[in-house]
């Protein structure tokens, strides 16, 4: 995907990240904690160095026993030395593990914040094309894999690399030719590891993709549970989910099969045998004593740690990089709206003008949702938008606050192109209430105050009363503190819409857009809501998308849309005389 230089929403970051690739991106995050990584590396080297000291001291003890002089005292000193060095080694090993674990947790936090901020900054064009389930998989499991990349991944890998170094440092002290076994091991280890990682990369990508598909299916099934149950499709959905789960199992089995034939594990056994044979040959030649043979074989045995942890640790790193790549696909996705921080931000008056505006959705080819729309509304006027389903009414409303941008033509607010407005200033002065009301799993008061978190309880209640919501809210045991279910499904449609109206009234917008927002309100409540909307529209520009004739009548300007085109404009009386399309809608 293309990297975007703009964002619909942005916050100033304390540091910059390199998004040109997953490894660069991870590094740009991790380098901020260089001191923790440095401390962990010191611990890793110290742990390996002191670990190599133990077999050397054991070899010295063997020589003491073979000589047979002052055995008890010398063995006691060696035992104390081994105990002291290994205690210090334990502290250094703890330093390594804790250092990488802290970095891993901080990385998970930073990456999650980076992704969340990026997702909030994407336009609706982006979000309308994305699966919520896949985004959730990337925001949770893929981010978690980056944590595992550092701990245990890099923790084990960097720790084990120090174990590989030690035989190269110690072997020459016995005899230079003893470098042969470590050299052969490292060459074959690198070749086999390269082949292993090359084979592992597509498998880990498949594992991450399979998990994403599984999450997509799960999210869609639960989100559409009412349709699933209403259509008696439970068994079909279970089968689809099982197929996706099976695909994930197969991908994990492939990874397990590859790990099971990890060649370095076999290589290690041959190296130990070869190194021991080499040391014994030197012993028979009188070049090494028995203690040196023991110490050398013990040091060579340190290669076992990188051998066994590589199979697991490099898998964690590969999965982490695959996860980072999937996260970057979201972060780097092209964005088509700019927040325009330095844009126009003066107090809004509410004048709206469309000048030859056309719009088509992404992927819509040549099919336009709106074509050549032109009209002008003065501040404080009420505009009713009418037309059959699919005529472009909602699309028109979403061009006002730049949920979408016009494909061609221009939209003006107070004579200023909406693209030249500071996006935050523009949207803070516009409230949209849609037919599909979204409420959060929070208290009623928090939902009403969502657009104005600093609102007092008195302001919240005043807005609720204006929206005719106060009475039913107080009927709940906890009143305004009542926690509503996800998406407000514990409330009726009319109750949700009145809370949405209260939320809009509280922000006191200069432009109010009501997108069929009273469709779920019963006739007994409609009159009260109608009065509230009428009162709220005073002093502000109001766009009403509705089929209710009572709301259309008192509009200052009525726009009649037909197949995305402006069929007629005027007042109710004018259109009843001049527009057949309007008369047809009005008579239906």
The whole-number mean of residue pLDDT values reads 84
Shape: elongated
Residue stretches low in confidence (pLDDT < 50, at least 5 long) are 1-5
The CATH superfamily of the largest domain is known as ABC transporter type 1, transmembrane domain
CATH topology value of the largest domain: ABC transporter transmembrane region fold
Q: State Rg.
A: 35 Å
Distance N terminus to C terminus? 47 Å
Q: How would you write the strand order of the largest sheet? A: 6-7-8-3-9-10
Q: Can you offer a commentary on this structure?
A:
With 588 residues, the chain is α/β, with parallel strands linked by helices. It folds into two domains: 310 residues, ABC transporter transmembrane region fold (Up-down Bundle); 236 residues, Rossmann fold (3-Layer(aba) Sandwich), CATH 3.40.50.300. Helices cover 62% and strands 10% of the residues. The strands form two sheets. The chain has a six-stranded mixed sheet with strand order 6-7-8-3-9-10, sandwiched between helices. A four-stranded antiparallel sheet has the order 2-1-4-5, covered by helices on one side. A hairpin with a 2-residue loop joins strand 9 and strand 10. The longest helix has 51 residues. The protein is elongated. The N terminus is likely disordered.
């Amino acid at each position: 995907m293309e990297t975007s230089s703009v964002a619909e929403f942005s916050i100033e970051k304390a540091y910059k990240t390199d998004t040109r690739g997953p490894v660069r991106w991870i590094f740009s995050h991790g380098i901020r904690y260089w001191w923790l990584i440095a401390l962990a590396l010191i611990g890793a080297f110290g742990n390996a160095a002191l670990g190599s000291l133990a077999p050397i001291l054991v070899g010295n003890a063997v020589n003491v026993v073979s000589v047979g002089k002052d055995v008890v005292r010398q063995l006691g000193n060696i035992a104390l030395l081994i105990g002291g060095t290994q205690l210090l080694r334990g502290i250094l090993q703890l330093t390594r593990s804790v250092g990488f674990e802290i970095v891993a947790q901080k990385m998970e936090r930073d990456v999650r914040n980076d992704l969340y901020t990026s997702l909030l900054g994407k336009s609706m064009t982006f979000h309308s094309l994305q699966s919520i389930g896949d985004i959730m998989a990337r925001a949770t499991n893929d981010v978690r894999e980056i944590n595992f990349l550092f701990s245990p991944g890099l923790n084990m890998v960097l720790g084990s690399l120090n174990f590989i170094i030690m035989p190269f440092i110690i072997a020459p002290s016995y005899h230079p030719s003893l470098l042969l076994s470590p050299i052969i091991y490292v060459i074959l280890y690198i070749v086999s590891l390269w082949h292993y990682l090359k084979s592992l990369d597509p498998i880990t990508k498949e594992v991450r993709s399979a998990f994403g598909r599984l999450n997509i299916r799960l999210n869609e099934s639960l989100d559409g549970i009412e349709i699933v149950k209403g259509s008696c499709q439970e068994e079909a959905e279970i089968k689809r989910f099982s197929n996706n789960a099976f695909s994930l199992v197969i991908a994990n089995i492939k990874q397990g099969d590859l790990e099971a034939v990890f060649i370095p594990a076999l290589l290690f056994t041959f190296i130990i045998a070869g190194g021991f044979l080499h040391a014994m040959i030197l012993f028979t030649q009188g070049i090494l004593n028995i203690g040196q043979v023991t110490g050398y074989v013990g040091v060579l045995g340190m290669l076992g740690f990188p051998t066994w942890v590589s199979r697991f640790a490099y898998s964690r790193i590969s999965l982490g990089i695959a996860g980072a790549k999937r996260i970057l696909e979201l972060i780097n996705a092209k964005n088509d709206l700019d927040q325009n921080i330095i844009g126009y931000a003066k107090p809004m008056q509410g004048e709206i003008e469309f000048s030859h505006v056309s719009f088509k959705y992404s992927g819509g080819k040549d099919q336009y949702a709106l074509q050549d729309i032109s009209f002008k509304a003065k501040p404080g006027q009420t505009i009713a938008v009418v037309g059959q389903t699919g005529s472009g009414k909602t699309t028109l409303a979403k061009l006002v606050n730049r949920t979408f941008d016009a494909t061609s033509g221009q939209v003006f607010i107070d004579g200023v192109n909406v693209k030249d407005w500071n996006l935050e200033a523009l949207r803070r002065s516009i409230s949209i209430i849609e037919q599909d009301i979204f409420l959060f799993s929070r208290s009623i008061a928090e939902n009403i105050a969502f657009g104005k978190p600093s609102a007092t309880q008195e302001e919240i209640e005043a807005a609720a009363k204006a929206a005719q919501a106060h009475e039913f809210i107080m009927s709940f045991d906890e009143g305004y503190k009542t926690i509503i279910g996800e998406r407000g499904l514990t409330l009726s449609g009319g109750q949700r819409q009145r809370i949405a109206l209260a939320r809009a009234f509280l922000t006191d917008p200069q432009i109010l857009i009501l997108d069929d927002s009273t469709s779920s309100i019963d006739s007994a409540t409609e009159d009260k809501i109608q009065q509230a909307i009428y009162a709220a529209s005073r002093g502000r520009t109001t766009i009403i998308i509705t089929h209710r004739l009572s709301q259309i009548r008192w509009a200052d300007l009525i726009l009649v849309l037909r197949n995305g085109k402006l069929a007629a404009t005027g007042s109710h009386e004018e259109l009843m005389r001049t527009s057949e399309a309007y008369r047809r809608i009005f008579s239906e």
